[in-house]
Every structure is written in C-alpha cells, then in structure tokens.
C-alpha cells in the first residue's frame, strides 16, 4: 500500500513528475512561438510493394529542429500540439508542404507515387476540414489521386456519423485513406466497415513480434485476410529485417514500410535513394 513508502520515495516521484511537466510545458511554449518554415521539415519514408519490390509511395513524417534544443521527435511534440490545439495550424503547414512536394515530384519524376500524410483526429473533426482540403487541392493544382491520408485508429473511428461523412467525402474527392497503427487501438471490427477507407496499416507493435510470438503472427494473418475480404489494401509498418519481410510476403501483405527499405529522410535524399533508382537493390 502507498502509505508504506518512505517520505523519500514520494519526493523522488514528485521530482520525476515535475521534471516531466516542466519539459512538457517548455515544449508547448517553444512550439507556440516556433517559426514553422524555419524549424519544421518533412522527411519521407518509402513504401514498397511486397511482391515486386516496386516503390508505391512515401509517408511524410514531421521533424522539428528547435534552434536551442535541437531535434525533438514527433512522438513527443505531436501529442502536446494536440492538447494545445496547435496541431490544427501545424497540420495545415504539413499539408501545404506535402502538396508542394507532390507537385514537384510529379513534374520532375513523372512518378505515379502517393504521398501519405498523417492527420490528427482533431484536424478531421474540425468542421471545415474537408472543404479547406478541397480548396487546397484546387489552389495548388494537385491531383487528388496522389494523396493518401493516414488517420490513427482511435477517436476518428468512433461510430459517429460526422466521422463517417469525412471518410466518404475524401473517397468522393479521390483521396485515399489509411487507418494507421491498426491493431493497437480500439476500432471495433463490427463498425470498421462503416468507414469508406482504402488501406490498413498494421501496427509496428504487431510486426515486431511476428516471428517470436505465434499469436502476433496469427493476428496479422487474420487482419490481412479480413482486409482482403473487404477489398482493403494492407501495409505493414516498422519492418526491419528479412525474417519479418518473408513472413509478410507469405501472408500476402500488399506493401511494406520500414527500415528494411529505408528510414525517413529529407526530400533530396529520398530522390537520390528511391526515385532515381526505383528498384531497391538490397532486397532480393
Ligand atoms: P506513424 O504515423 O505511425 O509513423 C510511423 C513511425 O514509425 C515513424 O516514427 C517512423 O519513423 C517509424 N518507423 C518506420 N519504420 C520503422 C522501422 O522499421 N523501425 C522503427 N524503429 N521505426 C520505424 P516518427 O517519424 O517518429 O513519427 C511518430 C509518430 O508521430 C507518427 O507515427 C505519427 O503518429 C506522428 N506524426 C509524424 N508526423 C506527423 C504529422 O505530420 N502529422 C501528425 N498528425 N502526426 C505526425
Ligand atoms: Mg502514419
Ligand atoms: Mg503508424
Ligand atoms: Mg504511430
């Protein structure tokens, strides 16, 4: 019971906790006054076809280089931005930059590649998000078919008709949608089919254990079979080694994203590593 702890223990935990709160407040403060164009940058990570190893697209992943603190990971600052509401403005910046990049790549490489953009549930729940997005496509003259939106399994998938409408609107626009981190949240299989989306991204947590843990493999197999039955594509995220890759290939997972094919890198590096040489040399 708690009251058996010595006073020192309480002091220790208090100190840890206040350090965490302090860091969180500091990041929130720095993010609020950040100059996005100077401090934020999009990295891109490739997505490859499992069977023929062709490049199918890339995910835009946000990086923040804070002038004094250096690199701060999205795993740390995105939740803070979601809490403060700054994610709306950050998310708009991300979509603007990603669309510019798509435009550029389509012109330079005439590549039929999709850029996946992460959107926060808060963004899509904002009432004018769909019309804002449609206007952006028009303004930047970007073809909707080159964009995929990744939405994390979670509140965006609550059985709510407003959420259903958002997915339906994007489908109508020709923008595809993926459910991110599938298998870790609470999307129920019962209503998942209500949402008009295109692809399931199987969570890294499941992929991590795919050859040590028989249950993880069975779950991944079941997800892939279910997705196929529903006409959805599957992509495995966080694939790091050949053993995982072989199992996913055997299970007929459509696409692979992970360090095995490449880490997230700046656009210029992505061009050198993946666009000038569409076939990946490392995988045979
Ligand atoms: P996510 O969307 O699930 O992105 C995949 C994460 O897994 C990325 O982490 C990526 O670098 C990492 N990853 C990919 N392959 C491997 C692998 O083989 N091994 C390992 N160890 N990791 C791998 P990252 O870039 O740190 O992003 C973390 C999360 O932050 C993202 O998870 C996403 O939820 C969020 N995020 C990133 N950029 C944005 C953004 O522009 N908007 C929003 N709303 N969220 C973003
Ligand atoms: Mg994602
Ligand atoms: Mg993910
Ligand atoms: Mg994630």
Automatic annotation (TrEMBL):
One function term, GO molecular function aspect: cyclic-guanylate-specific phosphodiesterase activity
Stretch forming the signal peptide: none
Residues of the EAL domain: 24-278
Keywords: Coiled coil
Protein name according to UniProt: EAL domain-containing protein
Natural source organism: Aminipila terrae
Lineage, uppermost ranks: Bacteria, Bacillati, Bacillota, Clostridia, Peptostreptococcales
Parent-protein residues present: 195 to 478 of 478
């Amino acid at each position: 019971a708690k009251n058996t702890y010595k006073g020192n223990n309480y002091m220790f935990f208090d100190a840890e906790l206040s350090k965490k709160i302090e860091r969180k407040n500091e990041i929130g403060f720095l993010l609020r006054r950040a100059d996005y164009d100077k401090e934020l940058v999009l990295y891109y990570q490739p997505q490859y076809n499992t069977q023929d190893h062709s490049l199918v697209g890339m995910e835009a992943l946000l990086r923040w280089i804070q002038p004094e603190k250096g690199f701060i990971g999205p795993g740390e600052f995105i939740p803070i931005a979601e809490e403060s509401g700054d994610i709306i403005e950050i998310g708009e910046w991300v979509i603007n930059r990603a669309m510019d990049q798509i435009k550029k790549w389509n012109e330079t490489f005439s590549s039929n590649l999709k850029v996946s953009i992460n959107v926060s549930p808060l963004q899509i729940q904002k009432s004018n998000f769909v019309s804002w997005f449609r206007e952006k496509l028009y303004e930047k003259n970007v073809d909707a078919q080159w964009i995929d939106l990744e939405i994390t399994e979670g509140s965006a998938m609550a059985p709510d008709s407003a959420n259903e409408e958002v997915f339906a609107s994007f489908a109508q626009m020709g923008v595809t949608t993926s459910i991110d981190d599938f298998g870790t949240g609470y999307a129920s299989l019962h209503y998942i089919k209500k949402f008009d989306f295109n692809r399931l991204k199987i969570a890294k947590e499941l992929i991590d254990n795919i050859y040590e843990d028989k249950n993880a493999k069975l779950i991944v197999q079941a997800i892939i079979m279910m997705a196929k039955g529903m006409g959805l594509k599957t992509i495995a995220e966080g694939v790091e080694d050949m053993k995982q890759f072989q199992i996913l290939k055997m299970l007929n997972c459509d696409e692979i994203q992970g360090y095995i094919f490449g880490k997230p890198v700046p656009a210029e590096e992505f061009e050198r590593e993946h666009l000038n040489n569409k076939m990946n040399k490392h995988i045979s």
